[in-house]
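Researcher: Quick one. two chains, 517 residues in total.
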Amino acid sequence: MALVELAKSFIFGAGYTLVLLFETILQFRAIFFKRNEIVQQMFTAGISSFFVVSIVAVFTGMIMGLNAGLGLKDFGAEGQIGLLLTITLTREMSPFMTALILSASVGSAIAAEIGTMKVSEEIDALEVMSISPVRYLVMPRVIGFSLMVPVLCIYSSILGVFGGAVVGHFQLGVEYQVYFNDVLNRVGSVPGLKDLYVGILKGFVFGVTVSIVACSHGLRATNGAIGVGRATRESVVTSFLLVIFIGYVLTAILYR
Amino acid sequence: MSETPIIEMKNVHKTFGSRKILKGVDVVVKKGETMVILGPSGTGKSVTLKHITGLVAPDEGDCFIMGESISFSKEKVRERLRAKMGVLFQSGALINWLSVYENVALPLREHKISKGEELHRNVMEKLHWLDLVVAKDNLPGAISGGMKKRAGIARALTTNPEILLYDEPTSGLDPVMSNVFNELILRLKKELHVTSIVVTHDMESAYMIADRITFLYEGKAIFCGTVPELKASSNAVIQQFIHGKTVGPMILDHSEQKKKK
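Model:
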């Protein structure tokens, strides 16, 4: 019986989120009118996660660089870590970790903010004033967030590559010139550009996913503070699962 | 007062989960009238108000605003009907990152009703009216509960509504501030000729502002009439409620009643 209820709630949640996404797309016509809010949301998403994204990106690059370098050293190929890191970071790791960080920081904040508005009747007040909550709250957040995630993906890729360079130089003895030559050659090549575009595309898709899931859970919050807490937690868990799943599907489709 | 019904609820039923909240509520409010909806907690007063605003649709029955259904009409019709309403929510429901001024200006900006000097003049007029000019730059978190409610009324008034709905306007206020609100409701009726519904369980307030009172109990409207008629009612539940007696036929706790069953 509990399983049936769980399935019902899952189907309702998925349906609600898809309808919300569709309604958000319909509200894109108000982008110019809402430009200030969109810029504000981009600023919020970017600034609030800037520090943590920077730290995680540098250390991800360093950890991956060290692990890959130690493995490649057995074959005398540690000089290839620049190439390896560029591929891995741009197409996979940067969008993935940026989306996870943003869903835990900004996504949870969106769910909590909208959830609090819902339980304190602010959403009802908007509806009674015939102000669409989708236009007023959801659309600026989805657009601001979705535009900011790809920017942060590129930024974290660059930092990760620099983190790998430092580890490569000091712990594996790879010259900076050799390392960055590999990086630039890869980025300038056709497959390298594809990696970059795929990374940006993934960042955008993850941005839409995390923000719409956060808004959907916030708008469905009920039952006071407990309900807001539940909405926030479920928003982060759902976002994590969807980012992993969508990340795999996109890689499988784009690199067949 | 005109006899034309401005607000009409016909046989409204509503169930949330396994709990039946409204069991066939009928309410008729005439033009220019102040109708007070009274009743104990958990009896469906706020749900009744949400039906009138179209935020909740009934399972059975219908709600009409100026003769048009708000419950089952298209969104465009609902928006048009809502444009004739102003609602004061229990907590004020101000957007918490906007200042009092911006909250009051919100409907005007979002619907592009006015801008620039005209918008400023309209907003300042409402702020003056509700004695909120000193708090105009404050965020909702930095003002008192009474001020939040007044800001909520100011926001509701910016679009010059014909209907005003108040959800517990005096709850959480001291007796002096409650009276200020009661006088404000009377003043709005006198000067703006608005039709009002006030949901409350504050008897003093109800006696002061009501033209008629509807008494909700167990999801049904068990009484509708004037203040003297209410006071003279022979219904034991009503007598217990208006005199605040703890002993009587009124079910005080629904969960306890369920357990007994």
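The radius of gyration of chain A is 21 Å.
Researcher: Thanks, that's what I needed.
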